[in-house]
């Protein structure tokens, strides 16, 4: 961030293609308001809108919405109560040190029970406060001990790792079983592991076969006298035929070249380099 002489801040961004496409969409949608498409104005409006969205999502609905007056049970904090606590604490950490200094951190804020639920505390506005992550851990360590806090954090991390691994394993098995159900016929009495192995082997074999079909198609088109660039383009346009006979794919690719490049290719014609390589040894000398 660069601060200019006028007090404005210059922010330089590096965007991926996907992020830049999203920016262009926002620029197009705001064309009726930001007619010159000024990137600074577009980004400022987008950030203001998104900040409002995040605030509503994190701290609950706006005032005036009907609220449930019952005292919540457990650790769940209703949206309206989160918003009330956030507005009371001015959307910053409310921790005050021994010398009277307030933290005031605005990032990573968390709702903390002043009197823990385990000690009889309730989920009410008077028993809730905003703390940053560091001071939340500090207060928890004072109340229940450093070792117990560390043990809980380690247990939570292990649970998250286990959950991610289980989710990835389920997704992988679902993909393999989908392939097996589509292409592999197994004995009903065979173990599931055998079906998964056969599905993986079939998928790998299919990839190899499609790659070989690409190579054979390009080679056949080159033999007909079609340039390498045109042959590769024709193979790309006929890749949906890679699972079928190569001869049929070559015929479709040849018709594509005839239509696209405005000339017919002869099966008996060879590319220039192939003709020169197959010419008799003394032909060039005789021509000279």
TrEMBL record:
Superkingdom in the source lineage: Bacteria
Gene Ontology molecular functions: endonuclease activity; nucleic acid binding; zinc ion binding
Keywords: Endonuclease, Hydrolase, Nuclease
Annotated HNH nuclease domain residues: 80-137
CDD domains attached to this UniProt entry: HNHc (cd00085)
Biased composition (Basic and acidic residues): 155-178, 263-275
Protein name in the entry: HNH endonuclease
InterPro entries associated with the record: HNH, HNH_nuc
Gene3D superfamilies: 1.10.30.50
Pfam family, any one: HNH
Region (Disordered): 155-196, 262-288
Transmembrane segments: none
